[in-house]
Amino acid sequence: MNAYIPYGAYWSTPFAKWQGSLAHLNPLTLVAQTGQRALASRQFPTDAIDLAILGLTNPCKGSFYGLPYVTGLMGLGQVAGPTVQQACASSVRGLLMAAQEVQCGTASCVLLMMADKQSNGPVVVYPDPTGPGGYGVTEQWVPDNMARDPYAGQSMLETGENVARHYGIATAEQHALKLRRHEQYGAALADDRAFQRRYMVDVPITDRSGRKSLGTLGEDEGVFPTTAEGLARLKPVREGGSITFGAQTHPADGNAGAIVTTRDLARRVARDPGIEVELLSFGMGRVEKGHMPMAPVPATRQALDRAGLGIAQIDAVKTHNPFAVNDVALARDIGFAWERMNNYGSSIVWGHPQAPTGLRGVIELIEELALRGGRRTEVRRQRRPDLHIRAVGVAGNAVPRRRPGFGPLFQMLHRLVH
Asked: In this model, does residue 79 exceed pLDDT 90?
């Protein structure tokens, strides 16, 4: 697609638990502060940014103005752009839009920012003068949309149960997968969180006014200790079902950002000019009603087809896994073992704020492949010093606002070309 992510020109905050350390902060002002600091610490030439894209699913104060408000707060008042509201697929859609702008020549350097929080979600009142007393209809934005997809007529949990029955995925396999994901996350915490420190930025916590410092959030908050014994004690959430609280993600708050640009600029601003990250193709998928966790399967196949690659040529897979059944279903249908997916963690462990979830996964995948490629090419760098990380595909449930809950966001597959 002739679009590139400069190596190192991305960041993510830690994710905080629902009603945790970030619950009282406005996600738009927070993403602006985080992005401004991240770009400055990377000495990124902000005058090169000629477009920005904001991802935001849960409304908050100031979200009517969206992206221009955020760039204004960042001192980028000359930078315009859209706001994307596509629930857990917001990062994917934002990446695709950025890549298309660069490929078409309508932008040369795109700032991508994903900001959301599940905490303190808005309560929306839709006026209805014809209703009883004219009081209107009230919607609690976050819990009501978790509890019922207005199109499918089911909760997010029910869609997971539907897929578990379709594939015959028992609780035991779901728990085995969760244990594996927790183990993989542990690798990101090794050596004083050496892996996470490659991309993660601290969040200064203030009071609501922004004037009084309350501390700093430097690591994920709300990750549950997970053991086989603990999981075995859990019962399915629904009677007759198979999904326990341990086999699904949890709501969270946080933000993430990245640059998408031309090959020339990516090389000039990369932390390591010898590492090139190229976006190759994207895919979208939609399946029958009430089977949301299956949607990544056709989308992944589409992305691979567009890239002209087969699954055997893929080195690493990163997924958004709101339920363990998401990964099991994908693994069975595309032939990539779920044990090999999601090294260093995924959303079933570190939580799901909506828009930022996917971008954090993409960032972690880039860093995983940089580490892996560095080892594999070390003895050959005298012949060819560059390591190319090629983003083969991003796939997701691409129906705007159809799945505002813990639905499949993306599958991001990469190939190393030495």
From this structure: yes
pLDDT, residue 380, reads: 26
Does pTM surpass 0.85?
Answer: yes
Phi, psi of 198 (to 5 degrees): -70, -20
When comparing pLDDT for 149 and 417, which is higher? 149
- Identify the pLDDT of residue 397: 46
pLDDT tens-digit series, residues 342-365 = 999 999 999 999 999 999 999 999
Instruction: Determine contact, residues 296/410, Cβ cutoff 8 Å.
Output: yes
Which percentage of the chain shows pLDDT scores above 90?
84
Dihedral Cα 84, 90, 91, 93, nearest 10 deg = -70
**Could you tell me if 182 and 190 are in contact, meaning their C-beta atoms sit under 8 angstroms apart?**
no
Looking up tokens 């699913």 gives 57
In terms of Cα–Cα distance, which of 112, 86, 104, 129 is closest to 3? 104
Q: Mean pLDDT score of the chain, rounded to an integer?
A: 90
Q: How confident is the model at residue 236 (pLDDT cuts 50, 70, 90)?
A: very high
3-state per-residue secondary structure call for the chain? CCEEEECCCEEECCCEECCCCCCCCCHHHHHHHHHHHHHHHCCCCHHHCCEEEEECCCCCCCCCCCHHHHHHHCCCCCCCCCEECCHHHHHHHHHHHHHHHHHHCCCCEEEEEEEEECCCCCEEEECCCCCHHHCCEEEEHHHHHHHCCCCCCCCHHHHHHHHHHHHCCCHHHHHHHHHHHHHHHHHHHHHHHCCHHHCECCEEEECCCCCCEEEEECCCCCCCCCCHHHHHCCCCCCCCCCCCHHHECCEEEEEEEEEEECHHHHHHHCCCCCEEEEECCCEEECCCCCCHHHCHHHHHHHHHHHHCCCHHHCCEEEECCCEHHHHHHHHHHHCCCHHHCCCCCCHHHHCECCHHHHHHHHHHHHHHHHHHHHHHHHHHCCCCCCEEEEEEEEEEECCCCCCCCCCCCCEEEEEEEC
Q: Which amino acid is at 386?
A: D
